[in-house]
Design goal:
It contains 10 helices and 12 strands.
């Protein structure tokens, strides 16, 4: 089984929301009439004008769209998308998953061959385009991408996905795929992701040298503080993707140790041949493997500290057997007589 994804971007999402359709969605969602009336009055009879230096344009009526960055925009956007995804899920029963992050859509399917995956993604993309048109939204075809995941060895050959009948381009899968700051490869080894952020930190540390002046450089404490607060979080961005139970960590450890060695040499101004553990101790840096274990435990504690109705719990969905046994005198387990 191979997994394939199709990514598309909605053009001018915030300015294209239909006010009448949004009011109808609120009514269908069984919101209180006062809330529906409030949002209807909030959206109608809106106008705007442009100001540039001493020039001011005339007022222009705005019949569609919501202001990007306003307090209520994200709420209205979520309601608009929820209805779209609900209808799309009914039409695409042969698709495994449909995900949307604001104006970025993601279609995921699984099949035994890439030709079947391309056929399924083509039909799904056609349905999504027609449904978005009914919602008053358009898709940027130039930003549409396709990517296939596979653990097959040898040369990877996949036929391109032709979207020209739908007005889109002919998509050829790439070797890597960047999405929301995550860099995926076909085998989900995340080597490109680790290399990218490790090199980014090395470039950041090199640029930190300009923070000193000709008479006095940054002292080791300031360098250590800059690295821990500004550079290290960049390296370990989304480390949960590749640091998990029984994951092969030889390659990440080698790259990250190489990165931290260069940083430690910069902090203590030591020779290049200095041993890593020695300069890490002088620079007060935790070994990278121990630091990863520390933040992994904290990330797990963070998930358990969330509210019971948080969306993260629905994604984790632990089995009843994995939950710890509850105390006999816990308030939630007491009966009315007790």
């Amino acid at each position: 089984m191979s997994t394939s994804t199709l990514i598309f971007d909605i053009s001018q999402f915030f300015p294209s929301l239909n006010h009448q359709l949004l009011s109808l969605i609120l009514k269908k969602a069984d919101f209180d009439s006062c809330i529906v009336q409030f949002f209807s009055n909030y959206l109608v009879n809106r106008s705007m004008y442009y100001v540039w230096n001493n020039f001011s344009s005339h007022f222009v009526d705005i019949n569609i769209g919501v202001g990007q960055g306003l307090a209520l925009s994200s709420i209205l956007l979520a309601l608009y998308l929820a209805s779209f995804l609900h209808i799309l899920k009914k039409h695409l029963k042969n698709l495994n998953l449909q995900v949307s992050f604001f104006d970025n859509g993601l279609l995921i399917t699984q099949s035994k061959s890439f030709e079947s995956s391309n056929s399924c993604l083509y039909c799904s993309y056609n349905v999504a385009l027609n449904l978005l048109t009914k919602f008053g939204l358009l898709v940027k075809h130039l930003k549409t991408e396709v990517f296939h995941f596979s653990r097959l060895h040898g040369v990877f050959n996949s036929s391109p996905l032709d979207l020209s009948p739908l007005g889109g381009p002919i998509l050829s899968p790439k070797d890597s795929w960047s999405y929301l700051g995550f860099i995926f490869d076909r085998k989900l080894s995340f080597h490109n992701h680790i290399n990218f952020y490790a090199n980014k930190v090395i470039s950041t540390v090199k640029c930190m040298k300009i923070l000193g002046n000709s008479t006095r450089d940054l002292n080791p404490y300031q360098k250590h503080l800059l690295y821990r607060s500004c550079a290290l979080p960049i390296t370990l961005y989304s480390f949960q993707l590749w640091h998990y139970n029984k994951a092969p960590l030889f390659y990440p450890s080698r790259i990250l140790n190489k990165m931290q060695r260069k940083v430690a040499l910069w902090i203590v101004n030591a020779f290049k041949m200095s041993p890593l553990m020695g300069i890490e101790a002088i620079a007060s840096l935790i070994p990278i493997n121990l630091h990863l274990q520390k933040i992994e435990g904290r990330s797990q504690l963070r998930a358990h500290s969330l509210l019971p109705n948080h969306i993260i719990h629905s994604l984790m969905s632990p089995s009843p057997e994995s939950l710890p046994p509850q105390h006999a005198l816990l308030l939630n387990t007491l009966t009315k007589r007790q």
